[in-house]
Amino acid sequence: MPSAERTSPTTKNRTEVRPTRRDEIAAAGSELIGGPAGRWARRGGNGRLTPVRVVALVAIGMFALGMVQKLPCYNWAWFRGASSQYTHACYSDIPHLYLGRGFSDGLIPYFDRLPGDMEYLEYPVLTGLFMQVASWINDAASWLGLPGGDLKSQEQMYWMVNAGMLMVCAAVIAVCVARTHRRRPWDALLVALAPAFALTATINWDLLAVSLTAAAMLMWSRGRALAFGLLIGLATAAKLYPVLLLGPLLLLCWRAGKWREFALAFLGAAGAWLAVNLPVMALAPDGWKKFYTFSQERQIDFGSFWLIITQRTGRGIEVESVNAYAMLLMLLACAGIATLALTAPRRPRLAQLAFLVVAAFILTNKVYSPQYVLWLIPLAALARPRWRDFLVWQACEVVYFLGIWTYLAYTTSENHQGLPPEGYQIAIALHLLGTLYLCAVVVRDILKPERDGVRRDGSDDPSGGVLDGAEDVFVLGGAAERDPRPAAHTADGVRVEWGMR
């Protein structure tokens, strides 16, 4: 008979979950390396490749393949006009902004005014610091005579320096996702092997915010609410979207009565954000606010359903109107997520709600750039670690990645070779529907927790920190009465019972 400790769903069971024994797609894919792990697979030994190390190495390898995919642009396409970099699908903002935002001239972000209409760097402060550090490293390399003094070489080196720094961020993301759920490190292979991750990693500087957010999720899973807040504050100083995670955390802490932990997280986030932003806000207020004014003034742009509307109707939408409509849709989505969180038969897992709220923000936004998929990939791996659904979504994103560049090739080439607007609209619709599909299966898991793969062994929220196994103190709509907590089975076939609230 199994021991009481083995069958308790609140016990920190150390048995590693093997996706190749639970997921048919993972099992089929494992045939490339010899098939699923057997019962007697070696699990001990010093110096062996642990799951976390394997995931990190795979992530670095995939990142390197993404760099190779940019090789035509690195060699010549970035410097021969717009069309070439689009036909080779290797565009990156990084070398262009090295020139366009004054780094090549030694200008300091936020403090030095840029020539032209942009006036100041339009990125949050921590991202601006990241860009500036890369510029200093690039300057140091130039002083050492590497790779050369001409402008093309400086742009190439600047991209290479940024790629190296972003590779570190990619490894951090993979390791953090692998360690967030102690028993499911292999789920991080979803991140490491995601094709959209490799293709979009060096388009922009999003991986900085994504790595800080992944580290924050790891800290929360270890019960370190203040560290979670500090990292979320830093991530928000690099990109706006991480602050959205405080909303789901509020709902779950409200339902579980964990007000102290939420207060620590909130105060940590506010403090970290202010510590980064206040010096620039005080010394260069015009430069500091450029990111926020630019976000408000930005017109409807690539990848959004708003662009489909304007292209199909042939009529534009005033920026004030689209801002208001997008805000209204986001508020409605958040209201739906809040209702779901407080009325679900079991308290949702933090990763599930975090994925839904970030996806809602992207879907309702007036721009859905191809690299925004990076925001969702780590959250998707934690929220829905199911290879079939993940790969369906990734296929849609890869199609869109190719679609946007071939559309831009069509609009910038003299003979219009590429994807016409009608084809691009289909690509937009496909990647929006792919994200909606993943949202739908996450919502289904919340409404039918017995179908949630993470909870199959009787777990509650293994990466939820203090929320894991906590009793509910506030629910709506009789959610407590609708929680049957049916029996489940572990990976070894041991029957367990769902824990009590």
What's the overall geometry? globular
What about the largest sheet?
A: 2 strands, antiparallel
Count the beta strands: 2
- Average pLDDT level: 88
DSSP helical segment count: 22
Approximate helicity band: 55-70%
Structural class: mainly alpha
The value of Rg in angstroms is 23 Å
N/C terminus separation: 25 Å
Order of helices and strands: HHHHHHHHHHHHHHHHHHHHHHEE
- Would you identify the regions where 5 or more consecutive residues have pLDDT less than 50? 1-14, 40-46, 486-501
Number of domains: 1
Strand line-up across the major sheet:
1-2
Strand % is under 5%
Q: What order do the helices and strands come in, and which of them pair?
A:
Elements: H1 4-7, H2 24-30, H3 51-69, H4 71-75, H5 82-87, H6 93-100, H7 125-143, H8 151-180, H9 189-192, H10 195-200, H11 206-221, H12 225-238, H13 246-256, H14 259-283, H15 285-288, H16 290-297, H17 305-313, H18 319-343, H19 350-364, H20 373-383, H21 387-412, H22 421-447, E1 488-489, E2 495-496
Antiparallel strand pairs: 1-2
Helix pairs in contact: 3-8, 6-8, 7-8, 7-12, 8-11, 11-12, 11-20, 12-14, 13-14, 13-18, 13-19, 17-22, 18-19, 19-20, 19-22, 21-22
Structure description:
The protein has 22 helices and two strands. The protein is mostly helical and 501 residues long. It has one domain (49-496). A two-stranded antiparallel sheet has the order 1-2. Strand 1 and strand 2 (495-496) form a beta hairpin. The longest helix is centred in the N-terminal third of the chain and has 30 residues, at 151-180. The relative contact order is 0.12.
